[in-house]
Amino acid sequence: MPGLPSDSLEAATISRSMFVPVGENTTWLSFNLYQTNLYREIRTAYNSFNTDFHLQEGQITWDDHWALQAGAEVLAQHTQYLENWCGSIPGALKMRRQNNGRPFSTDGTHLSMEQFAPHWLQRQRVLLELTYHHVSINRYRPMISFKFRTPCDALPTPWR
């Protein structure tokens, strides 16, 4: 496995970019480093989920209550890793929210776009947060059942 990319001021200078550092030892390369770390955390969660749940041939996780519980416990272990990842993001790469909303949350607070922040930085912030939410939802996909278990007759009339 190759080493993680560097986001140091020296690496940014060597690349001959004209982007100025945005503070807190954060450069335009920091986005790549934190996004790569996010994908590493998610890959670890997926790999740990691919364990033997002792299912019978032809069964899926949803057919066995114990397998479903074991899968949920495996995925729950990785929740803290993602919270740690969110906490490690420098303030310069976090989307600001109105009314003291938390970055990377789904608390419903409105985003506060900084008027004078460079466009490249605003794009990196948005993309980092969208990527986080995308992989967080996908992490729970194995726990989402797409089977429709209710007979059609039990549905209210407008839904038939």
Spatial shape: elongated
- Give me the count of strands: 0
Mean of residue pLDDT values: 80
Biggest pleated-sheet summary? none
Assembly state of the chains shown: single chain
Low-confidence stretches: none
Determine the strand fraction and express it as a percent band.
under 5%
Gyration radius, in Å: 21 Å
End-to-end distance, in Å? Answer: 53 Å
The percentage helix is 40-55%
Characterization of this structure:
It is a single chain. The protein is an all-alpha fold and 160 residues long. It has one domain (9-52, 59-144). The chain has helices spanning 9-14, 30-49, 65-77, 79-88, 119-139. Helix 2 packs antiparallel against helix 3 (65-77) and helix 2 runs parallel beside helix 5. The radius of gyration is 21 Å and the shape is elongated. The termini are far apart. The model has no long low-confidence stretch (mean pLDDT 80).
Any chance you could write out the topology, listing elements then pairs?
Layout: H1 9-14, H2 30-49, H3 65-77, H4 79-88, H5 119-139
Q: What key attributes describe this structure?
A:
5 helices; 0% strand; mainly alpha; 160 residues
